[in-house]
Amino acid sequence: MIDSDVVTLSRVQFALTALYHFLFVPLTLGLVWMLAIMESVYVMTGREVWKRMVQFWGVLFGINFAMGVATGITMEFQFGMNWAYYAHYVGDVFGTPLAIEGLMAFFLEATLVGVFFMGWTRISRVSHLLVTWFLALGTNLSALWILIANAWMQNPVGAKFNPQTMRMEVTSFSDVLFNPVAQAKFVHTVSAGYVVGSMFVLSISAWYLLRGRNVDFAKRSMTVAASFGLAAALSVVVLGDESGYAVSENQKMKMAAIEAMWETEPPPASFTVFGIPDVQNRTTHFALHVPWVMGLIGTRSLDKPIPGINNLVEDTKGKIGDGIQAYDAMLTLRKNPNDAQANATLSQYDGDMGYALLLKRYVADPRQATPADIQKAADSTIPNVPVLFWAFRIMVACGFYFIALFAYAFWLASKRQLDNKRWFLRLALCSLPLPWVAAELGWVVAEYGRQPWAIEGILPTSLGVSSLTAGQVWTSLGGFVLFYTALAVIDATLMAKYARKGPDELGLWPARDIDPAYSTSKA
Predict the structure, then answer these.
(1) Where are the alpha helices (DSSP H) in 155-303?
(2) Contact 90, 98 (CB under 8 A)
(3) pTM attached to this predicted model
(4) 46 in the Ramachandran plot: left (φ > 0), alpha (ψ -120 to 50) or beta?
(5) C-alpha to C-alpha distance for 358 and 352, rounded to whole angstroms
(6) Percent of the residues in the chain that have a pLDDT greater than 70, as a whole number
């Protein structure tokens, strides 16, 4: 039987390392584009002020990039350490985009980062600008391959189970590459990273203005951040619609859980603005609905229903029954690969075999499962509804807040009044952690909402773990917590140190104004 402690501890360890790693990834994705924009202005205008802006924000980018690489390496080791059967079962599919990402991250990106920092006096301005733009593109392409791998976990296309090797094998790499879930996740995730980078620059610049330091530098930085951030925040909301549609098409239980929709509503379904999900009684108390909205977002139609949780559980029971037939045929083929009847049965039901594997939490042989076991397995496909319900709504609320904040910052910048509204500067400074909160909640919705699946409909999470003891996982978990805590302290210390120093103390900003057009007296 499956050791639930090992499964739980392995999930906790991976969740902690993944969420910590993603503290650095979105800032890298967003801040690098800010550097590219600033350096483009420098090359086009020749104003030294913009070069110094790139160099200062580049220091903070470099610290963040180094931490991101360090945490990313240790995170990927866990596939072999804690999730060995997962790596064996789907490694042929999942490993390919990860390998490509590794080549891009540790060869292309690392090389470009080195040239970015060392090339200011060694290559021409235009060449250095190209390096910065290629670095921005490289970081985003690196994220693309990670998201292709992750999207396959959400929507496993382009692969088929081989009963002889007992593994999933690629049948169409183009299907894996152009997975519609990957496309939706990529544009939504990188846009969220752009918001993080914009808020980072906006908030630190606001801190300088509140203290009357580096005023012209801060106002220029805030102008770029407000413009880029407004476009990014709008993109997150618009592209979030595409992501929601992809979830509705491929992960119906996740969509129902996000909405705490226990029963199928007549189309078009309403959106629940507020409510208190009651898992035990399978109802949502004090629900406040907005008619039609969820139906339009989830199905882009007026006549397609969004299935409720209870209906999906009943459908799952049928898939478990079909999966048991596929499981039996798979065992037959292991003994006799030429059995025609078993081949036909497996071909008919192989898409549901993963549902039979859900029974292994309750019985060693799925073919011996009782109706009670099947009911338990079907009920186990319901994720944590209250967590998903509130995580999604907090994330959406943050998204609309970012639009309002950046829009007001953009208006102030156009009026040259960024340093005249101290209440806004305080608000911008206090808003610094919010994009990270929204980004982390997005991953909670994406990954926690997929449970109990490691690969949606293919491999239950409980079967993906390595053959370890709970004590061994506790040891590695403790080691990761200590290591990541040390990195967190180092990162926070370095970022705070150089942010407090500012461009003036780092010798990147003179005491006098460089460009009178942006001087404080004319703001």
Answers:
(1) 173-177, 180-210, 215-250, 252-258, 293-299
(2) no
(3) 0.92
(4) left
(5) 11
(6) 96
